[in-house]
Design goal:
334 residues, alpha/beta, Rossmann fold, Helicase, Ruva Protein, domain 3, two-stranded antiparallel ribbon
C-alpha cells in the first residue's frame, strides 16, 4: 500500500513536470499524461501522428525536465544496427603497442532515447532497438553491455507517407507499453502556438533526477489493485481473442488477432500509474477504461470486415469495454 504523503509528493512532482512541459508545448495534456504513465510504469511508448504536432519537441522537453541523459536517433533507410547499439574498434596502446578492441557506445546508451520516425528504417535495425528495449542490454562481440537505468524509449512514427517505410510488425509493436495518438490542437491552442512562435526549450527547468524517478516508480508498484479491477482488466483482454471460450460475441467478425497476456499486465501497470498521477492509492475501473485504448490499440488486429465497416482498433476497444461491463455489472457497480 502506498503512503498518502508520498502520493502527494508524486502528484506535486508530476504537476510541476506538466507545467514545465507546458512552457514549450501547447495543449496535448492527455498525451503528456500518457507519457508520464509509461514513464512511471517503466514502459516504452510509441507516439503516432501527422507531422508538425510537436511529438519530438514533447519528448525532448520531457527529458530536459527530468534531468536525465537524452539521445535522439533520426531513423533513415540506411541506418545500421551498429549505428544504434555501438561497435567495437581496434585500438593500439601507445605504451605497450598491443592492440585491443574497445567498445564505442551507441546512442542507445541513454536514460531517455527518442527514436524518431522508427518506421523509416529497415527491420534489421528496428529489431536491434527492440531487442535492447526488451533485454535492457546490448550484446556486441560476445560481450553484454548493460543499458543505464532508467531506460525509456519513446518512438515516433508518421501514419502517412507510407511509401518507402517499414511498418513495425504486430509482434514487435507488443514491446511498447502504450501507443499514444497525438491529435490536432484545438482552435484556441493553435492560436496560442502561433502567438508563441518558435519554442525555446532552454526555459525548461529540471524537476526530478534519476534517484527521485526510481523512488516514484517503486511507489507506483505499491498502488493497490482490487480483485474487481483485476478481473475487469483480464476480462477485457480475454474477450478480444476470437475463437476462445471467453471471446466477445463480435470478436470472430471484427477481430483477426486478439491481445496476449502482456496486454493484461500492461493494463494493470498503466492503471496503477494513472491512479498515482491522480493522487489515489488504489485503482478503479475508470483507470482501466482510461488507459485501455493506448494499451490495446496496437495489440489488436481488426479484421477486413471491421475495416469495411469503418471500425478501427479504438472503436473495437470501446466495444470490448462495454461487453466486459455487461458481463461484470455487479462488480463494477459495487
Amino acid at each position: 500500500m502506498s503512503d498518502p504523503q508520498q502520493l502527494a509528493v508524486l502528484g506535486e512532482k508530476c504537476k510541476r513536470l506538466r507545467d514545465e512541459v507546458g512552457k514549450v508545448v501547447v495543449g496535448q495534456a492527455g498525451v503528456v499524461e500518457l507519457l508520464l504513465t509509461a514513464l512511471l510504469s517503466r514502459g516504452h511508448a510509441l507516439l503516432t501522428g501527422v507531422p508538425g504536432l510537436a511529438k519530438t519537441l514533447m519528448v525532448s522537453t520531457l527529458a530536459r525536465a527530468l534531468k536525465l541523459s537524452f539521445k535522439r536517433i533520426q531513423f533513415t533507410p540506411d541506418l545500421m544496427p551498429s549505428d544504434i547499439t555501438g561497435t567495437e574498434v581496434l585500438q593500439e596502446d601507445p605504451t605497450t603497442r598491443t592492440r585491443v578492441f574497445r567498445f564505442i557506445h551507441g546512442p542507445v546508451f541513454a536514460n531517455i532515447l527518442l527514436a524518431d520516425e522508427i518506421n523509416r528504417t529497415p527491420p534489421k535495425t528496428q529489431a536491434a532497438l527492440l531487442e535492447a528495449m526488451q533485454e535492457r542490454k546490448v550484446t556486441v562481440g560476445g560481450n553484454d553491455h548493460i543499458l543505464p537505468k532508467p531506460f525509456f524509449v519513446l518512438a515516433t512514427q508518421n501514419p502517412i507517407e507510407q511509401e518507402g517505410t517499414y511498418p513495425l510488425p504486430e509482434a514487435q509493436l507488443d514491446r511498447f507499453l502504450l501507443m499514444i495518438k497525438v491529435g490536432y490542437p484545438t482552435d484556441a491552442e493553435e492560436a496560442e502556438i502561433m502567438r508563441r512562435g518558435q519554442p525555446d526549450p532552454s526555459i525548461v527547468n529540471p524537476v526530478m533526477d534519476e534517484e527521485e524517478l526510481y523512488h516514484l516508480q517503486k511507489l507506483v508498484q505499491g498502488i493497490a489493485v482490487s480483485e474487481t479491477v483485476l478481473e475487469y482488466a483480464r476480462r477485457i483482454t480475454r474477450m478480444s481473442r476470437p475463437g476462445t471460450p471467453d471471446a466477445a460475441e463480435f470478436a470472430g467478425k471484427l477481430i483477426q488477432w486478439g491481445a496476449g497476456p502482456r496486454a493484461s499486465t500492461s493494463l494493470l501497470s498503466s492503471a496503477r500509474a494513472r491512479a498515482a498521477l491522480h493522487g489515489r492509492g488504489h485503482t478503479t475501473p475508470a483507470d482501466i477504461e482510461a488507459v485501455a485504448p493506448a494499451v490495446l490499440r496496437h495489440r489488436l488486429l481488426p479484421s477486413y470486415a471491421a475495416l469495411g465497416e469503418g471500425l478501427d482498433a479504438d472503436a473495437i476497444v470501446v466495444r470490448l469495454i462495454e461487453a466486459a461491463k455487461r458481463r461484470l455489472p455487479a462488480a463494477l457497480n459495487a
